[in-house]
Amino acid sequence: MKLVNKIILFAAVALGFASCHGQEDDVEVKVTLTPSATTIVADGTESVTFEVLYGATNVNHEANIYLVSHPELNWSGSSFSTTEAGEYTFQAIYKDQASEEVKITATAPVGPHESRFERHICVMDLTGAWCTFCPDGMTKLTFYVQKKEWKDIVHMIAMHDNSQGEDPMGIDVTPRILSDFKLAGFPSFVTDLRDAGSLSENVGDIVPSFNRSLDEYPAQCDVKIESNLSGRELKIDVKLFAELAGTYAVTVLLVEDNIVAPQKDGSITHAEFNHKHVARAVVNSNYKGDSLGALQAEQEGSKSYTYTLPEEWKVEDMTIVALAITPDGYVNNVAEVAVGESVDYKYLAE
Prior knowledge:
This protein is of the alpha+beta class. It has 2 domains: 31-107, Sandwich (Immunoglobulin-like); 121-338, Immunoglobulins (Immunoglobulin-like), CATH 2.60.40. Helix content is 16%, strand content 41%. The chain contains 4 helices and 23 strands. It has helices at 2-26, 134-145, 173-180, 206-216; strands at residues 31-35, 39-41, 48-54, 57-58, 64-67, 79-80, 86-94, 97-98, 102-107, 121-127, 154-160, 188-191, 195-198, 221-230, 233-242, 246-256, 259-265, 268-275, 278-282, 290-295, 299-308, 318-325, 331-338. Strands 2, 5, 7, 8 and 9 form a 5-stranded mixed sheet that branches. Strands 16, 19, 20, 22 and 23 form a 5-stranded antiparallel sheet that branches. A hairpin with a 2-residue loop joins strand 17 (259-265) and strand 18 (268-275). The N and C termini lie far apart (104 Å).
């Protein structure tokens, strides 16, 4: 009798396993086609690379990718480039199963671009009230920024850090920036979210980073700010005008000047140090910017924000700084205005 019971129990377990296994087989596994970019320049060099997944498994070596919109081109492979501007549609086939179609836009190359806008630069000073070398770093950076050729176009922002010691001005994004740019420590600088270096050892890199911004990354967009202050509630409207097509983003910071707070300086601690250009907040919480989506040439994008200012912040010493960020992730232009006021696009003088 016991043997019969065991046989019945084993059969029931086996049936249950088969049933569960069958349910897993019923789950549909999809084929997906993922491009490395959805827009390329039709210069014959810039390309898009495709990945084919079956579920979570890469099956590029077994799948076929077809250029369904232009069968006459007889294209094959997993990387595509062209010299003809237009829209190209692709689809992948694996195990007789088709992916959804993917559209790639190839834009015509543009010639040398002459902007109608002034080019402004952002330089961040990564610092801390606990940092004994940081006052010297700020002094060095200020020396260069105040030179005649830079003082009207370079916007300095002190990004304080509270992760290694007490700093009432510290904000969360500072250690993230330090890590992202692989900087060894404080004080350091970051120019246009592109070049970075130490303000203790590589001070000579500051001016070349400014020159590189102007020479290699001329203005291709500009940003303007409209703001309104009601009590302690600040409303900010930021607009970006793109001269060249691309996916742009904006970063908005609130900056306060003349904050009196302690600061270590070598072996001395200043109880009432005057802190300049202090970033109180990154309004959009992401220093790399909020995307405005893909803008066409001569198109404007916008973002709006509302921020309640803490009572201890001195409104009369505060400015709003907006960073215009191009598809390469670098700052391409900067606007700065007093809280509650507005500033237009900065057109070149005719």
